[in-house]
Write a structure and sequence with these properties.
6-stranded mixed β-sheet; alpha/beta; 19 helices; single chain; 592 residues; 32% helix; 5-stranded mixed β-sheet; 23 strands
């Protein structure tokens, strides 16, 4: 539907063909002197691009494109730099992280444990009494030169007087002594699927262990407080700008625990209606209460609908997309590779069937979190049963993650018209998986097989509580098959070309929101979402890909971020709030 409406609008406005074929159409923005990766086909590069009304109108040589210039056209000289389509993360918890970003110390990309602990200590010194110092995912021990986790003694030494909570993947949480005291955790503190570790005297050590469900970790995190509403708006603006800095122009929000609709969407919705969000955001709705998922979706059907855009200035700027990734809690199989694989309970099928029937009947797209082939087998049986009685008939749906999906299961996904959203979770957890299950020779997830079968595949991060939100480590993982610690977990033949990896995080991800015909290429009729890079992604040494960022990001034909020579072109950001925010001191992803 989105694609048909877009093309109809283009034809009605007279923009589709004439601007692509003649010099008659003026441009409001032209980028020249560039190495433009059109992504139409591998090895296809151009020199310049013309943009008008938020869409690309022409691509070609600098001489050709300058024919579209008028006295009102802004011309940007890219200085020979590489230009790519804006990155599109098909699985990012963007709305939730926006509310929390300014309150979090990010260890994403930090190169040593010594540096991480220094940042922790410094941040505690500027954090006022009554506030927590929090590190909420996006890192692992293998990124550190020391190749180990912090000890509780080191955390307590760094911060003896402010409460600290540190989240490590889906498996562990660290509390300092002040944090234990603030929460009141003791020998009687119990969680159904987790352990509060005790010392020989029966007192909490500060280590929280998920077994395997991460409820103990997320429940503890929820007790560390939230920013007030005005600061949540500021935090969201800075998080979106941080994503723009890294070259992200679109994201598909997968929902998340503790992200209730519509309450926890109010800040981003208000900013979208004011035209202030600078990443096109499509969001799926995530059921929050076990046993009450069907009631959630029945209520949401009356409150919103797919493809409703609430952004003032961008087409598809802030859209409800569908249901998931958590359709029912009984179908969740947390990928905590520090613990054995969980089995889904026997009531899963009946609960999932009820929700799927509702969504399919009302033509809501859906996505399903599934890590293991064993879970996917049971999910597929339910989807196939529903499809026999209520045909999917082209309804967009896909699995998230799918690290151990089998070839036979992929064939069934293909038959049902589904896709797969993959992420670089193995970049952070490859070593843990190998330690539990042994060295692997099959690609995980089997992206090569998916592509060979013609299954739609989108690439993303699953940021921010486990993986980092940084997109470039995901692209690095896709082209090298290596973890953050350098372990090669794919066979060399499984690594993707740089073109194929980039295509998955642009047009590939756009499939998950029904926009693959208007996003992901630099060609006439496409959305004018572009990124100028400081180095050539296609030819630079692979190890440097992880540190890439944008020097100029354009969304809907407007500059939203600029650095270096392009900094004067970018709109100013509001001061970071609160004044003690870790973001004010360090920024976010540490790639500099």
């Amino acid at each position: 539907m989105k694609r048909l409406m877009h093309h109809a609008a283009m034809l009605a406005a007279g923009l589709a063909a004439p601007c692509a074929l003649t010099a008659a159409c003026a441009a409001d923005l032209i980028v020249t002197n560039a190495k433009i990766a059109t992504m139409v086909k591998e090895g296809d590069f151009a020199q310049a691009i013309a943009i008008d009304g938020g869409k690309i109108t022409a691509v070609g040589s600098t001489a050709q494109i300058l024919k579209h210039k008028t006295k009102d056209t802004r011309v940007i000289d890219a200085g020979g730099r590489t230009v790519i389509p804006g990155l599109n993360d098909s699985h990012l918890h963007i709305i939730r992280e926006g509310l929390n970003y300014n309150a979090e110390l990010r260890w994403d990309g930090v190169g040593s444990l010594k540096e991480a602990l220094r940042m922790l200590k410094e941040q505690a010194a500027r954090t006022p009494d009554g506030q927590w110092v929090k590190v909420v995912g996006g890192w692992n021990e293998y990124q550190f030169a020391e190749r180990r986790l912090p000890t509780l003694a080191e955390i307590n030494e760094a911060v003896p007087d402010k409460p600290v909570f540190i989240l490590y993947l889906y498996g562990l949480g660290f509390l300092n002594r002040k944090g234990i005291e603030t929460l009141g955790y003791d020998a009687n503190t119990r969680y159904k699927d987790g352990v509060v570790e005790l010392d020989a005297q029966g007192k909490p050590t500060g280590l929280l262990v998920a077994k395997p469900n991460a409820l103990i970790l997320y429940s503890t995190l929820a007790k560390t407080g939230m920013l007030p509403r005005a600061q949540q708006a500021n935090s969201t603006l800075h998080y979106y700008r941080e994503l723009n800095r890294l070259g992200v122009t679109s994201a598909i929000d997968a929902g998340g625990g503790g992200q209730a609709y519509p309450d926890d969407y109010a800040v981003s919705l208000e900013l979208a209606k004011d035209g202030k969000l600078t990443v096109r955001t499509s969001y799926y709705l995530f059921a929050q209460q076990p046993g009450k998922e069907l009631a959630d979706y029945e209520r949401w059907l009356a409150q919103t609908k797919p493809d409703r855009n609430d952004h003032l200035f961008y087409a598809n700027g802030y859209n409800t997309e569908g249901g998931g990734e958590n359709l029912v809690w009984s179908a969740a199989d947390f990928e905590n590779f520090l613990e054995p694989r969980p089995d889904m309970p026997p009531q899963m099928e009946s609960e999932l069937e009820g929700v799927l029937r509702l969504l399919v009947k009302n033509r809501w797209p859906f996505r399903i979190h599934a890590t293991y082939g064993e879970s996917i087998e049971r999910d597929l049986a339910v989807i196939e049963k529903v499809n026999r009685e209520l045909p999917l008939d082209g309804l967009r749906w896909f699995f998230d993650h799918a690290e151990t999906i089998t070839d036979a299961q992929l064939a069934r996904v293909k038959t049902l018209g589904g896709g797969i959203a993959v992420q670089n979770r193995m970049y952070y957890q490859g070593e843990a998986y190998w330690q539990r299950y042994g060295a692997q020779t099959r690609q995980m997830p089997p992206i090569r097989t998916m592509l060979k079968m013609g299954i739609p595949v989108g690439l993303g991060t699953d940021g921010t509580r486990v993986s980092s939100y940084g997109p470039w480590p995901s692209l690095y993982w896709a082209v090298t098959g290596k973890t953050a610690g350098g372990l090669r977990i794919w066979q060399p033949a499984d690594a993707l070309s740089r073109f194929d990896a980039l295509r998955l995080m642009t047009r590939g991800s756009a499939w998950m929101s029904g926009e693959e015909d208007v996003k992901g290429r630099i060609a006439p009729g496409q959305y004018a979402d572009l990124v100028v890079l400081p180095r050539d992604y296609f030819t630079m040494p692979a190890e440097g890909i992880r540190q890439l960022e944008s020097v100029l990001t354009i969304v809907n034909g407007k500059v939203v971020y600029g650095a270096g020579p392009f900094a004067p072109l970018a709109p100013a950001s509001p001061p970071v709030e609160p004044a003690w925010s870790p973001v004010k001191a360090y920024g976010g992803f540490q790639n500099r």
